[in-house]
Every structure is written in C-alpha cells, then in structure tokens.
Amino acid sequence: MYPMTVDHKSLTLDEEGMGKRNSVESVSQARSMAANGFKKNYGTAYDEDNEDNSCCSVIITLFSYILVFLTLPLSIWGCIKVVQEYERAVIFRLGRLKSGGAKGPGLFFIIPCIDTYRCVDLRTGAFDVPPQEILTRDSVTVNVDAVVYYQVSNPLAAICNNDDYNRSTRLLAATTLRNVLGTRNLSEILSDRESIADSMHQTLETATDPWGVHVDRVEIKDVRLPLQMQRAMAAEAEATRDARAKVIASEGEQKSSKALKEAADIIASSPAALQLRYLQTLHSISAEKNSTIIFPLPMELIGAFEEEDNTATVRRRKKEKHSN
Fold this sequence. Notes:
This protein has helices at 13-36, 51-70, 76-79, 155-160, 165-181, 186-191, 193-208, 227-269, 271-288, 299-323, and strands at residues 80-83, 87-93, 96-97, 106-109, 115-121, 125-135, 141-152, 213-224. With 324 residues, it is of the alpha+beta class.
C-alpha cells in the first residue's frame, strides 16, 4: 500500500465529524425511507443535524407538550384530526418528515404548535389533455387530445418529491403526447391508437414513479384533421371504392359469361332442354305478373319460316347468276 501523505492527514476534526454524521445519517435515512417505500429525489447536500438544532427541537417540543397539557380540554380539539378512508395524512414536525409514514385512515394526533400536515387523495383521478397541434412524420398537421387516469401510490413521494404532482402530471402528459405522435405517420395515428396509448402509458409510468403517482391508463380521445385533408381523404376513399366496385362487376360479368356459355352448350346438345327452359320461363312470368297474356309460339314454326327464307334467297341468287 502507498504511505499516507501529509495532505491525506490534513483533515480537520470538523470534516471528520461531518463525514461520520453524513454516513450515519445516510444509512439511517435510507433504512427509514426503505421501510416507508419512499426515496428522496431532492438534494441533501446541506442537510444538517447538529446538536444545537436537536436541543432547540427538544426544548420547543417540550414547551408545546406543556402548553397542550395546560390548555386541556380545549387543546384536544386542535390535536385530534380525522382523514377519510380514501385519504392519507403526511405529517411534518418542525419542518421534518415525521417517522412512521403517512397516517390514516381515521384519527391521528398532532401538536398544533410544531406539527403541520397535508392530506393526499388516493382515489383514481382523470384529466383531459388539451388538444395538441402536432406535425406528424409525413408533414400533416393534426389536433389530438387524450384522457389520462392516475392515482397516488405513495403519499410521501407525492408531497416531498414534487411541489404539485397534479400539475406536473398534466404537463408531462401533454409533452409526452406531442413527442409520441411526432414520430408517427398519419395512417398510424388513425389506425394504431392502442399502441400509441400503450407507449404513452409506459413513458408516463416511468416518469411519474419517483413522484409517487401511478398512471392507470391512457386513452386517445379524438384526432381532428384539417377540412381540406378530410375532403382529400374522402375523395381518395371514394375513388378506391369505385375502382373496387368496377373490378368486382367485371369479375362477375366474366363468371356469368362462362356460366352462360356452358349452359348454352348443354342446351344445344339437347333440344328438349331448350323447350323445358322455355316452359319454365313461361311459368315464372305467369307467377309474378298474372295480368300478362302470353301466346306460345312453337319454335318449329319459326324454323320453317327461316328455312323458306333461306331457300328463296338461294333461288334469287341463282337467277341473278344465270341472267348475268
């Protein structure tokens, strides 16, 4: 080991005492805070616990107890406090956090001269994130608002680590909404609201945990687009639907033409099938429109006229040839 130099031995008694006091105090504070589930996030570089402060605290506390005892029973009304089932009281004695954690629910005692307390509501609260005008990754301006549900999970951290946890949580939710949506496209914002809400929830939960605040859930309420963008998207959707309808109609025509061709081939191979189809058509017409009068005409008669026309045409052409 290296020998100690003069510089290492130049520590004064005050510095050594301060080092011992800080080390002992840090260990004791860490144990007490760990028992309460509370960790201080503010600076402790100037915390002092000297003998003068301890003596003054003892003297003031003693005089306070004597004053309360002398003014009984009137002073009892200032010493007894009540908190509701959903509340907890954080007590400070002479400006220091009193050991034992948050009090409640029910009755608890304080010394009016030296104790102060603040009540914290543990019920789940909700607030609306104001509409945020956000520029998406594909350069589209949208207005988005959300709802955040939260509750206080650690009253000591909510009071000691933040001057106003409600306001801080609101501002953090607004900035988180802008940061998360600024990295998404418009299509993702419109279709992936659940994933955006989950991302915001995780970010808020991590950031508000040192404040003693637990974020239950985050919901995206509404995404408002500019009027021109709405018209453009409506025109695009309408054109897409029209194109899809035309494709479907053309596919239907193609399939129907194939079916008609197959039916025509089957009917051509059997003359009786054509006659049956003719009778079926007559039956359907008579069932739907009873006022319609139908005169059946045999197909053979039409065929005879067609044959006569064909023979007359052939004879006329022969005569024309002989005359020439």
